[in-house]
Write a structure and sequence with these properties.
Elements lengths: L7 H14 L13 E6 L10 H19 L3 E3 L9 H10 L3 H18 L15 H16 L3 E11 L4 E3 L4 E2 L2 E2 L7 E10 L5 H6 L9 H11 L1 E11 L10 E6 L10 E4 L4 H7 L3 H12 L4 H6 L4 E10 L2 E11 L10 E4 L5 H10 L7 E2 L20 E2 L10 H13 L2 E2 L2 E2 L1 E7 L4 E2 L1 E2 L9 E4 L3 E4 L30 E3 L6 E4 L3 E2 L1 H4 L3 H4 L11 H7 L4 E5 L5 H15 L12 E4 L2 E8 L2 E2 L5 E6 L2 E6 L5 E9 L10 H8 L1 H10 L7 E2 L2 H21 L16 H22 L3 H20 L7 H18 L4 H10 L23 E8 L2 E9 L4 H10 L1 H7 L6 E5 L3 E5 L1
Parallel strand pairs: 1-2, 1-26, 10-12, 26-27, 28-33, 34-37
Antiparallel strand pairs: 3-4, 3-7, 5-6, 7-19, 8-9, 8-11, 8-18, 10-13, 11-12, 14-15, 16-17, 20-25, 21-22, 21-24, 23-24, 28-29, 28-32, 30-31, 31-32, 34-35, 36-37
Helix pairs in contact: 1-23, 2-18, 3-4, 8-9, 17-18, 18-19, 19-21, 20-21, 20-22, 21-22, 22-23
Bound molecules: ligand ANZ and zinc ion (ZN).
Length: about 850
């Protein structure tokens, strides 16, 4: 009998259309079933989807389809993170309007995503650059302004004088603007901020309530928030050395236990004491100016050489009025952290040690490492930062650092200095408020006005949205909104006088901080419909790249807290489960200094080695390392090409099958071909078996037929295992099970004919139907074609997950690895009591063994019951 090959090019569009027409994936909030919200991080509309998207969306789609089959009311939406610089760059380079560029890209990428057969609710689609969306974002902004969660303050920024814009720290490379290459300046600008620090404690503490997040992401967030408990400690200044009017300096320290090891005080260049001291000191003024030229970021300071300037001021040790320590201005102290002043204890802090060695300051150890001799111990060029026993420290001697911390805190809290306690406990956070002002066009306008008489005035709600003007020019650098002829002119909603619009737009991270909430009621007049938001949120499973582990997730966590305060939803956390997928990587190819794309490469086997030949030149080229697919190394494979030649199911199957989803997957042509062969094999199995089952009884019981029971057990076990694997996001394991089941069924079905016992035919029919439903989340199109071929009703995408008969799961079979010439090629599952002869026979029926033998008899067949089978060909 001949069967036609499965043709994804006709089948896939057909099923996509059928799903769309049946509105299968359009979700109603009040539909039956427990809610399940699965979301993949929405894409930036760069123009085309890449393999990373394919992997991300395939992962989420398996979960969505599986949960739907399990009876959940599944929300699986898609949209576009559509504001941002690339659209403006395109406008500058290609003279195309950012909106046109963005929406054309969205159209192209939507078509691509649809060709993947994703079970998305497209009726909820939006782009963050839609007026409808940013209108609601402006409403949120005004609410946050009301609640004191948005405010303006002066802050230091990296200013690119050529592009005339503020740059993020990451956009400053070696002190130069990433695009312009110009020397970046530090400027003070009035900027808008969100008060994320209001929630610092909760954002850190609530991480413990997120067990379904990767531990490493929680750790990264915790470090980013950087909670530290310490003391605000006031030091008196020696009057004779202090600038006029200055009598004390307050430091923030987390190590008051090391106070007897203090050897200097250092303050930031912008600290008021430094400013005062510099008034009559040009050298200090010059030093301060030099400090300001280093970047603002903590990383920049970390890398810079530690430098200080002795001010001549002396501070009095809190525990000894005779003991004086010198005060320095130092480039490594950040004005924005703590108090902008520290005391240095060189023996127990590496930075302080480097500084002390450079300026010849004392290094007195006060924490003795375990098992060290107090007389002999000294610190060389490495500070001792671990735990030990306090010594050289008067009343603290013999205590642990924690005990000493307490003792110092208690004593200094009770000590008076100029009429107030000398120390106070303080919790400090590394987290800073979130600066959201961007001097860009393609972003959400901040809806406020500047009025000459009223100052900063929020735009009236009824005047929203503040729409971006369409007529803009990108001829000159800087913010096009600033130089627009009329857009800025507005009327003050408070006094009716002339006002001008704020021209800053919001950081695009704002757009992505609440989109998951908008999806729950995408057309609501208010930013959310609180009922829908509370019904759907939190997102049960969020899936995306680890590159968003910190900012995007933290900002979203802040947003649900802010939105709760404004009454838009009532929710602790936005994402209950988080999964960060690995990258898609590929070999690189090099022709001299030129990178060669995989499509221009073919391979030859020469002397047992694999050689790469450049197709266009016929010349051998170098095979490089396996790296993340990137345009710069040209090691990219276009999803369109793969879907065009093999179909979406093959692409989905391959990205899901090859490695655990949190690891990188290596894209290989051979792997894709293997996936495609499997698609065809499944199709053959279904279409060759279906006709034999036409008269099979519809209910399978197994009965007394052993073979029927074996078939049923295999199917039920596989489905149970696949379900568990999908729940745990172990897709590669689920796929391995399907492979095994197909091997078993192929062997069993080959022996079937219309005259086989009815029980066996019924078991086969049941197994086939279960197999089709088990692959449906991963290969939804092939599954539909197969569903139709076996004569089932309706769409498999709407069919329930097969019910597993637990009595068939008991473990009286064993699975043995099967090797061919010593290399594992597959598995064999046999009844636990199977003897050597049974196992031999079953091995020889495995189709990969049949293929390897190619009609010959094996040289040897080694069976170790319960352990392994080896076929020597
Ligand atoms: C004395 C000391 C002794 C310190 C010692 C450390 C080790 P975390 O944990 O990150 O909060 N520090 C405080 N403010 C600073 C600023 N504005 N710029 C640079 N450094 C600053 O770090 C707190 C510690 O970092 C503080 O404790 C202070 O140095 C320093 F053996 O005080 B410590
Ligand atoms: Zn006014």
């Amino acid at each position: 009998m001949t069967t036609e090959r499965y043709n994804p090019r006709t089948a896939e569009p057909k099923w996509q259309k059928a799903w769309a027409e049946a509105k299968l994936f359009e979700t109603q909030t009040d539909a039956a079933g427990e809610k399940y919200y699965v979301l993949e991080m929405f894409p930036y509309p760069s123009g085309r989807i890449h393999m990373g998207h394919v992997r991300n969306y395939a992962l989420g789609d398996v979960v969505a389809r599986y949960k739907r089959a399990k009876g959940f009311n599944v929300l699986h939406p898609m949209g576009w993170d559509a504001f941002g610089m690339p659209a403006e760059n395109a406008a500058m380079q290609n003279k195309v309007h950012p909106a046109k560029w963005t929406y054309e890209n969205i159209d192209a990428m939507r078509t691509q995503l649809k060709s993947m057969g994703l079970s998305l609710d497209w009726s909820r689609e939006f782009a963050t650059c839609d007026v409808d969306y940013y209108h609601r974002q402006q409403m949120l902004f005004l609410d946050m302004l009301d609640k004191g969660l948005a405010y303006r303050k002066k802050s230091k920024v990296n200013w690119d004088p050529v592009d005339m814009t503020v740059l993020a720290n990451e956009q400053v490379i070696d002190g130069k603007g990433w695009r312009s290459g110009a020397d970046v300046e530090q400027r003070e600008l009035v900027q808008w901020f969100f008060k994320i620090t209001d929630f610092a404690d909760d954002l850190a503490a609530a991480l413990d309530a997120l067990p379904n997040w990767p531990e490493k992401v929680r750790l990264m967030q915790r470090n980013w928030i950087g909670k530290s408990e310490g003391l605000m400690l006031r030091w008196a200044l020696e009057t004779a050395t202090a600038p006029e009017g200055q009598r004390e300096v307050t430091v923030f320290t987390t190590r008051p236990d090391t106070l007897f090891g203090a050897s200097f005080i250092a303050v930031a260049a912008d600290h008021p004491l430094a400013q005062k001291a510099a008034e009559n000191n040009p050298d200090l003024q010059a030093f301060i100016a030099e400090c300001r030229r280093t970047g603002t970021s903590a990383e920049a300071l970390e890398k810079a050489e530690k430098k200080g300037f002795a001010t001549g001021i002396e501070a009095v040790h809190p525990f000894d009025p005779e003991w004086r320590v010198p005060v320095y201005v130092a480039n490594f102290v950040l004005m924005e952290y703590g108090t902008g002043a520290v005391f240095g204890c060189p023996a127990h802090d590496q930075r302080d040690l480097d500084f002390a060695r450079k300026y010849g300051l004392p290094v007195k150890p006060v924490v003795l490492p375990p098992h060290e001799d107090p007389v002999a111990f000294s610190v060389g060029n490495e500070a001792f930062t671990d735990d030990g026993t306090i010594y050289n420290s008067g009343f603290l001697d013999g205590k642990t650092p924690d005990e000493a911390f307490e003792a110092v805190a208690e004593r200094l809290e009770a000590t008076d200095l100029f009429g107030a306690p000398q120390a106070e406990r303080r919790v400090n956070y590394r987290l800073r408020d979130w600066g959201i002002s961007r001097q860009r066009y393609w972003g959400c306008p901040i809806p406020v006005l500047h009025c000459e008489s009223c100052g900063v005035v929020p735009e009236a709600r009824e005047n929203l949205p503040v729409k971006l003007p369409d007529d803009i020019d990108f001829e000159k650098p800087g913010n096009p909104l600033d130089r627009h002829a009329t857009w800025r002119k507005a009327i003050c909603p408070r006094c009716g006088g002339d006002a001008s619009r704020e021209t800053d737009t919001m950081d695009t991270f704002v757009d992505s901080s609440w989109y998951f909430a908008r999806f729950t009621a995408p057309r609501a007049d208010e930013p959310t419909d609180p009922q829908a938001a509370n019904a759907w949120l939190p997102v049960d499973q969020y899936i995306g790249g680890i590159e968003h582990a910190i900012l995007h997730l933290l900002y979203s966590r802040f947003f649900v807290r802010a939105m709760r305060k404004c009454g838009h939803l009532d929710l602790d956390e936005p994402f209950k489960g988080l999964f960060t997928q690995g990258m898609v990587v590929h070999e690189t190819y090099r022709d001299g200094r030129e990178w060669v794309p995989p499509v221009d490469v073919r391979f030859e086997e020469a002397e047992g080695a694999r050689r790469a030949i450049r197709i266009s030149s016929g010349q051998p080229i170098e095979i490089g390392g396996i790296e993340k697919m990137s345009k710069s190394k040209k090691n990219v494979v276009d999803p369109d090409d793969i879907i065009g030649s093999y179909g979406a199911d093959t692409a989905r199957w391959f990205v899901l099958s090859d490695s655990p989803p949190d690891r990188d997957v290596i894209w290989t042509e051979a792997g894709v071909e293997g996936a495609h062969r499997f698609v065809q094999r499944l199709w053959r199995l279904v279409t060759e078996t279906a006709p034999k089952l036409r008269d099979a009884p519809s209910s399978a019981s197994g009965g007394e037929d052993d073979e029927a029971l074996t078939i049923r057990k295999a199917a039920h076990r596989t489905v149970a295992g696949v379900g568990e694997d999908i729940e745990r996001l172990g897709f590669n394991k689920a796929i391995a099970r399907v492979h095994e089941l197909v091997n078993q069924l192929a062997a069993a079905f080959a022996k079937l004919d219309a005259g086989s016992p009815p029980a066996r035919l019924a078991a086969a029919r049941e197994a086939l139907s279960m197999l089709v439903r088990a692959i449906a989340p991963m290969m939804p199109h092939l599954a539909e074609s197969a569903w139709e071929a076996i004569g089932e009703d309706g769409l498999v995408a709407a069919a329930p997950w097969p019910t597993v008969d637990d009595t068939l799961l008991s473990d009286d079979t064993v699975t043995l690895p099967v090797q061919i010439n010593g290399k594992k090629r597959g598995d064999l599952t046999v009844p636990a009591e199977a003897g050597k002869a049974d196992i031999e026979q079953a091995t020889l029926a495995l189709d990969f063994v049949v293929a390897a033998l190619d009609g010959k008899t094996p040289k040897r067949l080694v069976v170790v019951p319960g352990r392994i089978v080896n076929v020597v060909v």
